[in-house]
């Protein structure tokens, strides 16, 4: 039996062990060292698994590079989302509101909701949409209280001329006319001729909103408005009031189907509350300095004294008209008595 047996069964000769013990005691520099049990185990694996390279106990396999798949996926999804919004904005609105604009009638006005799909849906109704300054001060010959009364009467004129249901049905606007200075000859001439023989310079639509009952009627009990009255001192110490107001009228063909459209009118009126000591006027009346309006879905062609909404095929009769946004309140009016874009194609209504 040998003096020692390795874990794999190999043995050393007696002469080798005797030399090993002797040199170990003597401390010979090149004396063979007894391999550790772990070293013997590694040597055994090398002999039994010659094709496998040993791994050092302090060595670690190199880390595999991480693929940034998540970042690329998120970026791709973001690009696709932006593309979807650009190509189908209506569908995005549908997802948010729960509606379905892919259907042709999804945003069309109805009898129950005549302002459906319109920016005016969120506007105030009637006179509430015509705002006035919260505080007033004395101007020219008027005290602050008188300025406040003049502003209120100016708004009364807008209501009587463009919101009164009888006037909108074609009746003569008597209440509105009563607020105009009866001594202002040019305007009085307009009032005398406009309702009998309407024309370019004598059209009642320059000051009043009217629909011909035999052709169109208002839908619902609500009319939408947005605008304001401002004031400053005018000529000869007069109070100069400027009104810039947009009126939205939902209408349908009289005796026709449920085809509803919205006639949109933006008016700018400049009124002068004159000092009776300097100008011939009557108490509680104003002079008209200027009047302008923009009209959409109100008709084209020869003036009739009424708005003529283009129902059915007439709606697209004039494809040559330029596109207009009837809800644009930032663009100033053009020069002249009236800046009308009667045949323009509305980008929205």
Beta-strand fraction estimate: 15-25%
* Sequence of secondary-structure elements: HHHHEEHHHHEEEEEEE
Overall 3D shape: elongated
SS element count, helices: 8
Give the helix level as a range of percent.
Answer: 25-40%
Number of strands: 9
Mean pLDDT: 80
- Domains, number: 3
Distance between the termini: 111 Å
Estimated radius of gyration: 45 Å
What structural class do helix, strand and pairing data support?
Answer: alpha+beta
Give the biggest beta sheet.
7 strands, mixed
Low-confidence stretches: 1-9, 53-63, 96-102
Tell me what you see in this structure.
It is a single chain. The chain is an alpha+beta fold. The chain has 3 domains: 59 residues, no CATH class; 40 residues, no CATH class; 228 residues, no CATH class. The protein is built from 8 helices and 9 strands. The strands form 2 sheets. Strands 1, 2, 3, 4, 5, 6 and 7 form a 7-stranded mixed beta sheet that branches. It is elongated. It starts with 13 loop residues before the first helix and ends with a strand. The N terminus is likely disordered.
SSE order and pairing:
Layout: H1 14-26, H2 37-48, H3 69-87, H4 89-97, E1 124-125, E2 130-131, H5 144-162, H6 165-168, H7 174-177, H8 185-194, E3 216-218, E4 224-233, E5 239-253, E6 260-273, E7 287-296, E8 323-324, E9 345-346
Parallel strand pairs: 2-4, 8-9
Antiparallel strand pairs: 1-4, 3-5, 4-5, 5-6, 6-7
Helix pairs in contact: 3-4
